[in-house]
Amino acid sequence: MDTSDRPIDPLTGLPADIPADVPIDPGQPVAVVPVVAYEPAFEQVTYAQPEPPRKPAGPPKSVTGAALLNLTGLGLGYAYLRNHVLLAVALVVTAGIVTVAFLTDAAAQPWVWRGAVLGWVVLVAAHAALLASRREPGARQRGPVVAGVVAVAVVAAGYVGYGIAGAAVYDRGVTAQEAGDCGTAGRAFATVTGPFELTLSADVLAARTRSVECAAYEKARAAQDRDDYESAIVLYDDFGKIHPDSVLAPHVHTNLADTHFAKATSWQEPVTDVDARLSVDTLLMLRRDFADTGVADKAPAAIADMFAAATKPYGTGKFCDSLTVLAYFADLDPSSAGEKVVADANTFRARSLFECGLSQYRAGRLSEAVTSFTTFLAKYPDDGRAPQVNAARVSAAVAVANKVTLPMPPPLGGNDPGSIPMTFYNDSQEPLKLLVAGPTAHEVTVAACELCPESYAKDDPAACADVNGRPSVTLHLTPATYYFTTETQDWVEQVSGSFTPKAGWEQWQCVYTSPA
């Protein structure tokens, strides 16, 4: 039997594929296979001993109840779990959050603090739930859950009520502020920004702004009450610039008008020109800019009172002293200052200019008299005293130019008070106004000489060398000394002189222009 390449049974030494009941031929060679003893190998396996079950942390507790109780932020879940240390820690942390929020103006960043509080209560609620889950399992407990729901509802309702109370206080403050009662409003706003700071409402910031407005208003009002008008006016003006949209604006407007009025009517006699101007300017401003206030209606009467006080010097005959204040009142708008005041002012002023000018003339203050008379004629040309004023003005101007003293002439009339002719010729291209004064006064204009030179040098012998064809004016005067002068433009030299008409003589005077 060929057994090569055939598997051998180690026990019989025969091919393993020969059935056991097959007879073996003894004549066949037998393969000798050494017998090897095998010892089966076993892998050593080590098994971990199971841990003994953890001992429960305490009697059964409701996970949901513990979480809800801690969701209040007051550590009630820890109290439910009988963990007094964690209860104390929770209360301290919650109190700390509240304190820091109050001290750091939480209302300015409400969502930051809402997020912080929400995170804290969620954290402690989850922690309480974890601790409760480690307790012995037991029957479902409904009491703690109900207690937790009630506790959360009470805290939530309390906070909502806290917010509603804060809003009510704020509304009371706004109502008081709108009425101008900043004392009441200020106390209400202080409560909102104090005890009700943690409502985190927009009312807190609004109350802070309104408190600033009330403080500024009260400061101005205090200055007004102590009659410190200057300070009050400045403070009210500043308020309007800084808080233009404040509900106090109408009160500021009225109080500012009242302060201006009080200042304008706080004068004392004797009243100066400056006092009168400042007072009446303010009263006119009130009529213009504060027409909707009560003091605007009082302004005309106050202006009339000031006019009466300011014109007392006029009533005592101090005409020159009255001119400045009368000029101010006379130039006012009758529709604003009052028609009677302005009419009286013009009547008084005309008389004052006349009387003052005459007194100045008599006192030899001739330049001042010329100014008074000139103003009179410019303002009141149709006044019945105008002829006398004009004669006095001419005489004063001639006297100043010739450095002489002349008597007060009669009212200006015609140019022929006498019979002796006196002719004036103009040898220039400019019309010349001549003022002549002596026993009488005259004002004449000699027409321009279109063919004459524009001007002559002073003392030029060619000037007036030939008066034939020159424009002229002839006066008929009395046999007395007269003086004359020219009224010309500033760039022309003034010509002055004197003459004495004589009966039977033909007299003339030629004038011309020379650069000044």
Descriptive overview:
The protein contains 17 helices and 7 strands. The protein is an alpha+beta fold and 516 residues long. It has a domain at 407-515: Immunoglobulin-like, CATH 2.60.40. Strands 3-2-5-6 form a 4-stranded antiparallel β-sheet, covered by helices on one side. A hairpin with a 3-residue loop joins strand 2 and strand 3.
Characteristic key phrases:
516 residues; alpha+beta; Immunoglobulin-like; four-stranded antiparallel beta sheet; three-stranded mixed beta sheet; 17 helices; 7 strands; 8% strand; rod-shaped; transmembrane; TPR_rpt; TolA-binding protein; membrane
Mean pLDDT: 89
Broad structural category: alpha+beta
Compressed to H and E, one letter per element, the order equals HHHHHHHHHHHHHHHHHEEEEEEE
Instruction: Fill in the CATH topology of the domain at 407-515.
Output: Immunoglobulin-like
Q: How much helix is in the residues?
A: 40-55%
Tally of helical segments: 17
Distance between the termini: 171 Å
Question: Which strand-content bin applies to the residues?
Answer: 5-15%
Keywords: Membrane, Transmembrane, Transmembrane helix
Region (Disordered): 1-22
Organism: Actinophytocola algeriensis
InterPro entries: TPR-like_helical_dom_sf, TPR_rpt
Summary?
Keywords: Membrane, Transmembrane, Transmembrane helix. With 516 residues, the protein is α+β, with helices and mostly antiparallel strands.
Helices and strands in order:
Elements (H helix, E strand, L loop, with lengths): L62 H8 L5 H5 L3 H20 L6 H24 L8 H37 L3 H12 L8 H24 L3 H14 L6 H16 L8 H17 L4 H17 L1 H4 L3 H12 L3 H4 L1 H24 L3 H14 L6 H17 L17 E7 L5 E6 L3 E6 L25 E6 L4 E6 L8 E4 L7 E5 L5
Parallel strand pairs: 1-7
Antiparallel strand pairs: 1-4, 2-3, 2-5, 5-6
Helix pairs in contact: 1-4, 1-5, 3-4, 5-6, 5-7, 6-7, 7-8, 8-9, 9-10, 9-11, 10-11, 13-15, 15-16, 16-17
